[in-house]
Amino acid sequence: MTMLLEMPAFRQRVHLLSVNDYHRLGQVGVLSEQVELLRGIVVKKMPKSPLHELVAQKLMRCLLAKVSTGFEVRRESPLTLRDSEPEPDLSVVQGRPDDWAGAHPSTAHLVVEVAVSSTQVGEGKAEIYAEAGIPEYWLVHPEAGAVDVYREPTQDGYLSKTTLSAEQMLRCASLPGIEVAVADILPARSNRAR
Hints:
The chain has 194 residues and is α+β, with helices and mostly antiparallel strands. The protein is built from 7 helices and 10 strands.
């Protein structure tokens, strides 16, 4: 199917969904909970490996301990954007849960994806998050012991991308006071390899 989507003649025949259509299909039970909307295309989410879950849990604990009052750390929760409704592994959103009783948040201060087997999908989401004006995106590569930090969003993507190794600190520019050692979110074997 991927090769078909690369063909312009086939791509023109694909029916793209709006976010509203996606919501309607979800409400009537046509869509599985294991999908997300990316650029109008319903995409099956990757299964979560034990490594993925470990890193996401470690990072969530670090963020929960450091996030300021008035912000929420959300796990695999939708963000409703122009033509997409991704469900990042983690997001830090200003507000409180009651604020989203009628609609999902439309922005975040930080989004995080953990890429064990889905690096290309994670890199592709960078464009979506930048276009939405999300100031910071972390793409964690646990097997490589690295984190890509994207900043300075524009309509054409992020202007800045920095790759941090296990020996470095993640410092969130969009949320002052959030600092996490990259080694602290990686599996113990990566910590010992340092």
